[in-house]
Design brief:
- With 234 residues, this protein is mostly helical.
- It has one domain: Rhopdopsin 7-helix transmembrane proteins, CATH 1.20.1070.
- Helix 3 runs antiparallel to helix 4 and helix 4 runs antiparallel to helix 5.
- It has a 3-stranded antiparallel β-sheet with strand order 1-3-2.
- Strand 2 and strand 3 form a beta hairpin.
- The chain contains 8 helices and 3 strands; from the N terminus they run βααααββαααα.
- The N and C termini lie far apart (62 Å).
Length: 234
């Protein structure tokens, strides 16, 4: 089985969708080149991803018809398993200025396409199940590809970032590895799922990169920049 875990609750999903969507719109407004479009689509896609999961929560809680939940679950899984492993390496490669590094990223884009197609087939064949496991939704599909799928998927979404000449993307690639390990442990322990927080962090890094490329990086408010911490002497 391939496990995928959602966020804390429908309400948290909706709040996360609003925040990540706002970050994505901000990045879209500050695009300086069309090649950044796929990159900007990442936070917008993740925002829609969180929004869709609210329907799954409400269905599993018996608050909306079951058909709403079924559609929400399949769309949620299609984005997570098919769209994300293709979109991330494609977007990162698209904005990479170094030709040699772009060549290094190409095999991982191919890995992402293969992974997305393979997991898409598994999603279509099924079985697909979803259940509330404490503070997250535990999604499961298929009968095989558990460890192998997770490793290949992670390679597709993390390695191209770490191969980038942009330091913010290298940071994001390392962050993805840490988050997958840490959040994976929390999910396995049945404690809580904070994947929406991870999505928000990715959106912030991407929006900051797009803004920086446009010459308009985020800055601390004037009142905060004017603060001076007392220095200890002697």
């Amino acid at each position: 089985m391939v496990p995928i875990c959602g966020c804390l609750s429908a309400e948290v999903d909706l709040f996360a969708a609003f925040v990540i969507g706002a970050i994505g719109i901000d990045a879209l407004r500050h695009m300086s080149h069309r090649r950044q479009l796929a990159l900007v689509l990442i936070p917008l896609t993740l925002a829609f991803h969180q929004l869709i999961e609210a329907g799954a929560w409400w269905s599993l809680e018996g608050r909306v018809p079951e058909v709403v939940g079924s559609v929400s679950i399949y769309i949620y899984l299609a984005i997570a398993l098919v769209v994300v492993p293709i979109l991330i390496p494609y977007a990162v490669r698209n904005v990479e200025p170094n030709p040699r590094r772009r060549r290094w990223m190409t095999p991982f884009l191919a890995v992402g396409v293969f992974t997305g197609v393979a997991l898409g087939v598994i999603l279509l064949v099924g079985p697909v199940s979803a259940s509330i496991g404490g503070y997250y939704i535990d999604y499961r599909i298929g009968y095989t590809f558990h460890d192998a799928a997770g490793s290949v998927y992670l390679a597709a979404v993390a390695v191209p970032l770490m191969l980038s000449s942009h330091r913010s993307f290298v940071f994001l690639g390392v962050l993805n590895l840490v988050l997958v390990a840490g959040l994976g442990w929390l999910n396995a322990a049945g404690v809580v799922s904070l994947w929406c927080a991870a999505a928000a962090l990715q959106g912030i890094v991407i929006a900051h990169h797009v803004r920086t490329e446009a010459g308009q990086p985020w800055k601390l408010p004037e009142w905060l920049r004017s603060l001076r911490l007392p220095l200890r002497t002697g």
